[in-house]
């Protein structure tokens, strides 16, 4: 029986061409392919072969511009060294910054909760009505754009 250990890379995606108030319009599949293309360019066939098994874009929030990539332990280094060199995802000019590398998805989501709570606090002053604040909080704290069933109540 083969047991794989994974690493989850939490990534901040920023784009100078899209204002901070607007969503990026970025899909997980496009993000996934852009990372694999850059790994191919930097590390060749060996890098792609090492990473491909178990590699997945698990989460991508268009509003807060946060994504989570899953890679096997060991080959995750190919992923993490390739991220700073990605300048385009689809037609979008971007810069990527690795925020956190965790051993479990649960810890990555805990980190994102803290990170997004600080983002929410910084955006709070620009909103006028309680309805706008509620909508922003729902968008920022939305963890449903992932293929993992996660009970947030158990995380606290």
TrEMBL record:
GO terms for biological process: rRNA processing; tRNA 5'-leader removal. Keywords: Nucleus, rRNA processing, tRNA processing. GO terms for molecular function: ribonuclease P RNA binding. Its main location: nucleus. The keyword Thylakoid does not apply. InterPro entries: Pop5/Rpp14/Rnp2-like (IPR002759), RNase_P/MRP_POP5 (IPR016819), Rnp2-like_sf (IPR038085). It comes from the Eukaryota. Component of ribonuclease P, a protein complex that generates mature tRNA molecules by cleaving their 5'-ends. Belongs to the eukaryotic/archaeal RNase P protein component 2 family. This is Ribonuclease P/MRP protein subunit POP5. It comes from Plutella xylostella (Diamondback moth).
